[in-house]
Amino acid sequence: MPQSRRGPPPPAASKSSSSSSRGKQSDRKKNTTTVSNINVNRNEAKNPKAAIDPRVLSQFKTILNTFQHTFSHLFDTPDLPQIIQSVKHSLYLRDYVAAFDSPEKLQAYVVRWSVARALAYFEMIAGGWWSDDVTRAFYTTPTIPAHSNSTTTPNGSSSSSSKGEKRLSITCIGGGAGAEIVGMAAAYSFLNPPVPDITSTEEGSQEQEEKDEGRRGLDLTLLDFATWAPITDSLYTTLTDPTKKESNVFLEKSGFSAKCHQQDVLTPLSDTTISSISSADIVTILFTAGELYSQSPTATTKFFMSLHALTKPGALLVVVDSAGGFEDLDVLKENKNNTATSSGGGGSKNSDSMGGYKLGFLLDKTLTNRDQWQTIASHDAKWWRVPQGLKDSSGYPLELENMRCLIRVYRRNES
Ligand SMILES: C[S@@+](CC[C@H](N)C(=O)[O-])C[C@H]1O[C@@H](n2cnc3c(N)ncnc32)[C@H](O)[C@@H]1O
Where is the region Disordered (predicted)? Predict the structure, then answer.
């Protein structure tokens, strides 16, 4: 298949990639612009004038359009600033029940906070921040010799594939608020751009067939204890609306599913939750781990420890959180100052103590000490910044925030 018909390849090997994922690199390095080049060009901390890759800028804009179209009614509401303020106040108090107790508050949260996160998650996935393995899992166009029947699994190994056999399955814990569905759909569509209709020639129809065999589809399960389903349903409708595909992130319904399931992950897990975690190629916990620890360090540690038994060998676990914010969750300190906060998960949950552990250290200790998981990407404090080019041109009416992130990606070991 001619290279020009493919989407951008996954990144060249980066520091965080594991040796097992490198086997198929040579097939993918033919394009001169790799996704990791895009990432390097975006290093505005070192060079604020560095030009952003136009394809990335364009996808950032389609992400913003997706939110603006979906919630267009909200931007005309004079009450929006007031609702945002009230959500902010409840979040400051860590009163998550009050923060999310009405549809308007959920929508206000999404347009104010989830948008920047969706931008960040798109770039983190497409740019290899979460390891080459994660990026490659999103990149589904056939990559190895055109007539081979192979595909690449999230753990980088090669497995045989038949038509329609394998879709990328991701379970997002605390993932109801819209950032994951849009950010991941954006990364998926960016890494697998539509192929022009080439079926009019014999060679073209064979190529189209090979492409269809390789394109697997994306299935998201969004687990969250708040009632986000109306939000994710609205976003799904926009993301799969063919009439908006020129301006918004777009995926065909046949290749994309997103289900929101209500679950407090610190309480006994439902069968639906268990089955979604156990079939997932990737499990994400994005800006949620800190909240879980604030609700109950003991139950959260237990939950993280249970993930090994719940997930399949080779599954990837991605945790992103606010870097350095974990001192706030030092329950010892809170108890000492008598300022224990409301968690929304029940008052008694805050009674146990974590001491002063930092989140990254705690995760590493919980997951890797018994060789159940291996770390494949690790950053204690990495800035994601809203690109200046987007700020200058997007016209998005609300603030988009930079983030200083803790990132950990683990691969589940066989045993
Ligand atoms: C800070 S928000 C992050 C949302 C989203 N993951 C993102 O990155 O933008 C935390 C999310 O975790 C959810 N959450 C908090 N505690 C939870 C629990 N015990 N079980 C399930 N979801 C929880 C909240 O409802 C909220 O959607």
Answer: 1-46, 142-164, 196-216
Q: How far is the CA of 47 from the centre of ligand 1 (A)?
A: 34
What mean pLDDT comes out for the span 72-99?
91
Output the six-digit token pair for 57.
Answer: 């800028």
Length of the chain: 415
The reported pTM is 0.81
Phi-psi region of 324 (alpha: psi -120 to 50; beta: other; left: phi over 0): left
Q: Which CATH architecture has domain 53-195+214-412?
A: 3-Layer(aba) Sandwich (3.40)
Cα–Cα dist 133/109, whole Å: 31
Give residue limits of the domains in the chain.
53-195+214-412
Tens digits of residue pLDDT in 106-118: 999 999 999 999 9
Which residues are CB-contacts of 145 (< 8 A; sequence separation ≥ 6)?
Answer: 27
User: Does 294 sit in the ligand 1 pocket, CB within 6 Å?
Assistant: no
CA distance 116 to 107: 15
Residue 9 CA to ligand 1 center (angstroms) comes to 32
For 332-355, the pLDDT digits (tens) are 344 444 333 333 323 333 444 455
CA of 318 to the centre of ligand 1 (A): 14
pLDDT band at 197 (very low <50, low <70, confident <90, very high): low
Ligand 1 atom closest to Cα of residue 117 = 9
Residue 198 has what DSSP assignment?
A: -
Pair type for strands 373-384 and 316-322: unpaired
| Atom 27, ligand 1: residue with shortest CA distance | 174
Ligand 1 atom closest to 179 (CA): 9
3-state secondary structure of 221: strand
What gap in Å lies between CA 373 and CA 299, rounded to an integer?
Answer: 19
For ligand 1, say whether the CB of 222 is within 6 Å of any of its atoms. Answer: no
> Which residues contact residue 400 at a Cβ distance below 8 angstroms, ignoring those fewer than 6 apart?
115, 116, 119, 386, 390, 391, 394
Using the atom order of ligand 1, give the atom closest to the CA of residue 267: 19
Please state, in angstroms and rounded to a whole number, the distance separating the CA atoms of residues 174 and 224. 5
